[in-house]
């Protein structure tokens, strides 16, 4: 499982008290199966669900009074909630929480919906493909390029500094073995920009590629009259290097 709920405390904990008796994740009021990961001398605890979390579902994290710090202070009972997104495929909860907006979630769902069906891209037939997961590093590379185009009023795969797609991915810390990029300008919705990309042979091939496993994307809006387009869209696709 890639999903982990990380808790950071203000001081080290007594290891014997860091267990499922004192830490829980609940769904509809009932505890779910978790594994507790804790290294002595650390102020960080990871709760690892032992089964896939349900999409679009409210969960509760509970800390009970039996949890104790190394200084002997006992925790007070407390809880808080988080909701999983409706659908993000195999994307980790860390990526969902760390870098995905509602538009990002909609984009990932739209791309994976397109990949789930066989289609023709400019006369080339593509079988249905497996779903992609979201990468915060590819998201960062896409945002860098979308913001560059919006700020400097141009539309190209080459950045204002001469950078190309692969270089921007490298700069974002993404080491890739396969990569692709789609750009678009002006469309107001995820649906409209996806329709445009899927109607274009090259963009469609990037979306349907079997060579990539991850994606990131960005939408940057501009002030009226400040740039050639009111909205700049970038999709980055990649497969991590081994």
Automatic annotation (TrEMBL):
Transmembrane segments: none
Designated name of the protein: SCP domain-containing protein
Pfam families: Big_5 (PF13205), CAP (PF00188)
Species name: Allohahella marinimesophila
InterPro entries: CAP_dom, CAP_sf, Cu-Rt/internalin_Ig-like, SbsA_Ig
SUPFAM superfamilies, A to Z: PR-1-like
Keywords: Signal
SCP domain segment(s): 108-237
Domain SbsA Ig-like, first and last residues per copy: 3-84
PANTHER family: SCP DOMAIN-CONTAINING PROTEIN
């Amino acid at each position: 499982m890639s999903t982990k709920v990380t808790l950071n405390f203000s001081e080290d904990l007594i290891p014997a008290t860091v267990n499922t008796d004192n830490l829980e994740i609940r769904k509809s009021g009932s505890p779910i199966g978790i594994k507790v990961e804790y290294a002595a001398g650390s102020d960080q605890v990871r709760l690892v669900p032992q089964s896939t979390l349900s999409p679009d579902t409210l969960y509760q994290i509970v800390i009970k009074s039996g949890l104790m710090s190394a200084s002997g202070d006992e925790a007070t009972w407390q809880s808080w909630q988080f909701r999983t997104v409706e659908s993000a495929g195999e994307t980790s909860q860390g990526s969902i929480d760390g870098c995905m907006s509602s538009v990002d979630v909609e984009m990932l769902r739209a791309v994976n919906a397109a990949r789930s069906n066989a289609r023709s891209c400019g006369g080339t037939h593509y079988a249905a493909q497996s779903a992609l997961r979201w990468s915060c590093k590819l998201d960062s590379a896409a945002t860098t390029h979308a913001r560059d185009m919006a700020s400097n009023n141009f539309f190209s795969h080459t950045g204002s500094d001469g950078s190309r797609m692969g270089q921007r991915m490298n700069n974002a810390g993404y080491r890739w073995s396969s990569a692709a990029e789609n750009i678009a300008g002006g469309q107001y919705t995820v649906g409209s920009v996806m329709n445009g990309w899927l109607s274009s042979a090259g963009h469609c091939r990037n979306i349907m590629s079997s060579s990539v496993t991850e994606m990131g994307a960005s939408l940057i809006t501009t002030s009226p009259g400040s740039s050639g387009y009111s909205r700049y869209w970038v999709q980055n696709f990649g497969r991590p290097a081994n």
